[in-house]
Amino acid sequence: MDEANRLSVWNGYVDWRNRPALRGYHGGMLAASFVLVVEVLENLAFLANASNLVLYLSTKMGFSPSGAANAVTAFMGTAFFLALLGGFLADAFFTTFHIYLVSAAIEFLGLLVLTVQAHEHSTEPWARVVLYVGLYLVALGVGGIKGSLPPHGAEQFDETTPTGRRQRSFFFNYFIFSLSCGALIAVTVVVWLEDNKGWSYGFGVSTAAILISVPVFLAGSRFYRLKVPSGSPITTMFKVLTAALYATFKKRTSRNVVTCHTRNECNDNIAKGNAEGDGSFLDEALRERESLPGPLRCTEEQVKDVKIVIKTLPIFMSTIMLNCCLAQLSTFSIQQASTMNTKLGSLTVPPAALPVFPVVFTMILAPTYNHLLLPLARKTTKTETGVTHLQRIGTGLVLSVVAMAVAALVEMKRKLVAKEVTCCSSNNVSSSYSSPLPITFLWIALQYVFLGSADLFTLAGMMEFFFTEAPSTMRSLATSLSWTSLAMGYYLSSVLVSAVNFVTGLNQNNPWLLGKNLNEYHLERFYWLMCVLSGINFLHYLFWARRYAYRSNQN
Fold it and tell me: Quick one: which of 79, 509, 542, 551 is 20 to 30 A from 119 by CA?
């Protein structure tokens, strides 16, 4: 009877009441489906404000355009960076279940502060203080949710079976679909409310969305299986690195005074060293284990875990450039569209609605990939995954190169039309710029098709790659690297624009991306530069991806 009970329990997992999780009852697609619904509401609450926040700061709070842009960039970057904190706490001390609930409460409080602040319509210094308190409470809450919700859903599947692994891949693809559903409502319905009914309505809808997400999440409580926290993964990493450094330093200092007494003893030591690792620097922590102080003695499993984390870092670094492209295009593409004909029949589409195109395309592509492309790939390659995680990420990086090339070509066409209009008009460039150019803004939507595809392949691939490859003790933290890459992409885009303007503005030349008239920008050159950098980044990615050895089943 005891043996039967042991076999029916998920080892290392508990339910929400801290009792052993049971096979056949806890976990599975039903439990993960609650996570997908919650993500729709959570992303709606976050993006409803983030997508239109720059306009609110500049028109209602008295920020300058550059000040508003910097404030939004800092807010978005901080929110995504704080996903690391959420992931760390989920791995080390609490479960993903509890981190989500606390983070949702913090985000709700921040949105409530923003709603009250927007209702007051004040631009006094105290109002800005309240604004920043609300924004960064939201950022803290969003970070905790982003760092806990994806791994919480992924932990519901049994990775020891092919069916469980396929369902987990299915979950990550539909997690991106849920992100897009929330984003679609945010950039249409909520933005319309903010523009036409008032900003307090928009903040109020966001507050209600995150509030509703809590009972939806709790409704799945009896089905969840929760990974038991196993202590700080960062402590383990520092311990292994410190032990390796200490052992290496000690070995070098003693090399001049310690010699092998016989050739056989030397050979024995060499053989022992080769048996304890693959010859990397970290293996010194194992070879010299007996001579290390007690607190620095590491197990073979700990050294192996740190090696895995270090192996994934070049892959992580290679994805930052893609997110830089996404951040950059979301800024300049809207400005380009504002100079073009934005009418669809009798309907005039606001340029700020451009993000609808990648969102809708992603919503179409995600189920198509899951139900058509992936089964076809499995049948063709006769493998379990059909497409490996690194192949998915690489596909996204290639599509980002194509997207930047398309963006450059579209900008060349737009400027050619602007030049023709200027030549045919007796007015100067500035006056012709004030009226829409005779070219449809749907040309801009073309590059979003490639960007939406790149985002789906890369973000879903990154989350699944980091989750499956990371040691079980640091999966939430590793999955958070996907969001950290997005944050670093936002920051890199700002640095890149400043660097380009500085270099091109030398010797009293006009910087490429400076001025009030977009037709005088050399935006096409900047896009070609991004295309080249993205191509170089892909080669860098290819170098590491071809040498990467999976620890998980990627047959």
Answer: 79
